[in-house]
Amino acid sequence: MQTTHRADSNPRLSRRRALAAGAGAVATGLAGCLGNATDAGDGPVAVASFFSFYDFARNVAAGTPVRIENLVPTGLHGHGWQPNASVTRDIIEADAFIHVGPGFQPWADRAIQTLDDDNIDTRLINSREGVELVDLAASLDREEEGVGDRQGLDPHFWLDPLRAKTSVDNITDGLVDLAPDHEEQLRSNGETYKTETLDAIHADYRAMFDAAPRRVVQLAAHNAFQYIGVRYDVEMRPLVTNLAASGDVAPEDIRRAQQVIAENDIRYIANGVFEARRPAVQLIEETQAEAYFPVTPYAGVREDWVEAEWGYAEIAYNINMPTFEVVLGNKSPEAAGPDGWADEWRNFA
């Protein structure tokens, strides 16, 4: 069971008692944010700190009274986002908080500390529990990206669909603890999602990467994709190392990218949907690459994706896979995605 309970000599403070108490019980960082307690509805509510795990949870909870909510606003990257204190209230009001483990989202760590300090009974579901992490790539900024005791581990494990299955297990256990009367449905949903969705994505990725004529991907984005490289024996070469890189790229980084692109005869590169465009534009201007196409580490969603009810799987098949087909040389942009994909995403603004 991956749900954390706080066991100490002080009684836990329920969410509704905390809210009714106003700023008294959870004053730190929450001044002016608390109001009257409200009913959560027919079933328990779990809020998620990151889109990927929100999507896993809503698939596990399908057909049960458990309601899953995504804390990250539409259009924002779930890693670089810094919410205001009202989000901690949302966590306090919820019955459970699904998070990505310590060290990845500082705001989530602070919210968890507030829950601990004030003995609030929101359950904690650590989606990273038991996942085998790999060392940071040399290209990753340890201060910006790393997790672990010495910030030496890459946190982006959910890009690997097989590692993501452990998260589904963690979330399933946590939701069963939250709604034990619906254990059979929750566990059935979790197993179905792992076999019919994550295993299918893995098989399609494996076939695509095995067929690739080259083993190098040039990213204009930061390197959130090392786990795909590790799983499918592909070298991911980022241009920038952190989410704050929005201006011109350092000359030495451009020179390295120019060399990679020339040596591997790369015509197309990948750029993050929720990241700055300038590094990608600079690469197109200063190398033989002709265009960039989208990738995303499932860290956020656009409004049109929400309207289309896209989740982890839909983003994999409509964004990441077509781009990897193109940048690896498997297919032309026109043949990689659905009709109109190349026109929509070529050098997207």
From TrEMBL:
Pfam families per UniProt: ZnuA
GO BP terms: metal ion transport
PROSITE patterns according to UniProt: PROKAR_LIPOPROTEIN (PS51257), TAT (PS51318)
Keywords, sorted A to Z: Signal, Transport
Molecular function in Gene Ontology: metal ion binding
InterPro entries found in the cross-reference section: Bact_metal-bind_prot9, TAT_signal, ZnuA-like
Protein's UniProt keywords contain Lipoprotein: no
Residue ranges of coiled coil: none
Family statement drawn from the similarity comment of this UniProt entry: Belongs to the bacterial solute-binding protein 9 family.
Name this protein carries in UniProt: Zinc ABC transporter substrate-binding protein
Organism annotation: Halosegnis longus
